[in-house]
Amino acid sequence: MKGYMLIGGKKVYKQEEIEIRFPYDNSLVGTIPRGDEKDIEIAVEAAKIGYEKLKGMTAFDRAQALQKAARLIASKSKEFAELLTLEVGKTIKESMGEVGRAVNTVTLSAEEAKRIFGEEVRFDAAPGVKNKIGFFRRVPLGVIGCITPFNFPLNLTCHKVAPALAAGNAVVIKPSENTSLTVIKLAEVLIEAGFPPEAVNVVTGYGEEAGDALVRNKDVRMITFTGSVETGKIIMSRGGLKKYAMELGSNAGVYIDKDQSFRIKEIAEKVARGGFALAGQVCISVQRVFVHEEVYGDFLEEICRFTKTLKVGNPLEEETDVGPVIDKGAADRIVDWIEEAVRMGAKVVCGGRRLSDTLIEPTIVKNVPHEARLFSSEVFGPVILVNKVSSLEEGIKEINNSPYGLQAGIFTNDLKSAFKFAEEVECGGIMVNEIPTFRVDQMPYGGVKESGIGREGPKFAIEEMTEIKTICFDLS
Length: 476
Ligand code: NAP
Fold this sequence. Notes:
The chain is an alpha/beta fold. The protein is built from 15 helices and 22 strands.
C-alpha cells in the first residue's frame, strides 16, 4: 500500500517514495513519500491555521483531547507495538513497553495542560514606582518543528507533540525515515482525539531535505530535536533565530563501589539489561562500566554468565531478548569499533560474533583504552565495556572523561560516596543504586556538555515550548 504524509489533516501522496524495511530480515514493511521543501512550506502554512484554531480550545479542552488520545493509543496497543517492532526491530516485549510509556507521557501532558502558570511581578519593588500592578503569563510559541529519531518513534514523538499541544502550539513533525509509519499513526490518533487537523502535521522524507527545510523555515519558532550530536550541531548552525531543545547522544557510565560484593550478581544483571535493551540503541544505554578492583573479577564473571543466557534473534518472537540493530551500516560500524578496541589492547570476554547483517551478539569488552572509539564515542549497539578502577575518585574521573553528559549511575552503600558522585559527575541525571538507563517520563530529562540543551518530561518541555509575556497595569 502506498504511504502518505499528513498535512492539514489530508493524506498527501508523492511519486517518489522511500522504503521502510524490517531490520531483522530486510523485508518490506511499507513506503513513505519523499517530502521536500515545498511540502514543508505547505505544512507550516497549515500549522499556522492550526495554531489559530487551537486558540479556541481552553486548557480544559486540550487536556480532554490529550486524555482521549491516551485512551486511543492504549486501545490500539497491539497494532502500535507490532508496527514498532517491524520498523525499529525492537523486541515485541520492548515495543509493548514503549506503547505503555507513550500512554503515560500523553496522560502526563494532559495533566500539565491545566498547570501552565505565571506569577505576579512586584513592580513597586523598583525605586519610585507606584500604582503599577501586573503579572506574567506563559504563552505558546506558535508553530514548533519536531524532529525525531528512529529508536523510540512513538514515545519520543509523544514527548514533543503532547506538551506542545498541551501548551497550545501547532506542530510539524519530521520523523526518522526508518520509522515514520508509527508517527503517522500517532498523528491520526491526535486528530481523532479532537485537535484541529491543521495543528498536527507530519512531513516524511530525508533529514537533509525535509528536515533541513523545516529547520530553516522562518515561521517555525522552535525546533525540538532528538537525535545524534552531529545532526544537532548541523541543525543549530542552520536554523537561525529560533528556540532549540536538543536531546542528543551519550556513552553513559556507571561506577560499582568496593562494598557491593554482596549483590554483585543482581547489579551485573541490571547493567547487562541496561546495555543490551533495544540492542544497545538507547541514548542512556550502559556503555562504560567502571568497577572497583576488589569486586572487578566477580562482576566480570557474573555479567558474562548472564549475558550468555540472553536470546538473540527475531524480535517478533516473544522469547527474544535482543533483536537486530537498525541496519547493516550500523552493524558494520559497531563491529569495526570492537575490532579497533581489540587492536588497541582491549579483550572481548563474551559475545562479539556477528550473526547476520544486523544481528550482533551482546558483547562484553574489558580493558578498553581511552583512545578507542568504544570508550570515547557513542557506540549505540549491544556492547558494554568493563574497566577496572582503584577508587571512587578514579571512577568519577573516568565517567567525566567523555564529551557527553546525559545520565550516570553509582552502586554504593556509602552515603558520602553517593553525594560526592552526584556532586562531581557532569551529567543531567544521576542514579544512585540504579543504572543510568533508568528514566520515568515525568522527570526532567536531558543532558549537559554534548548531550544537549533543555529538558524533556511534559512539565519541563512545556517550559521550553512557551514564552513569558509580561502585562503591566498603571492604576494611577
Ligand atoms: P540522527 O541520525 O541524528 O537523526 C535524527 C533525526 O534527524 C531523523 O529524523 C533524521 O532524519 C533527522 N535529520 C538528519 N539530518 C538532518 C538535518 N540536516 N536537518 C534536519 N534533520 C535531520 O539520529 P538517529 O540515528 O535517528 O537516532 C540515534 C541518536 O539519537 C543517538 O545519538 C541517540 O543517543 C540519540 N537519542 C537521544 C535521546 C535523548 O533523549 N537524549 C533519545 C533517543 C535517541 P533521517 O532519519 O531521514 O536521516
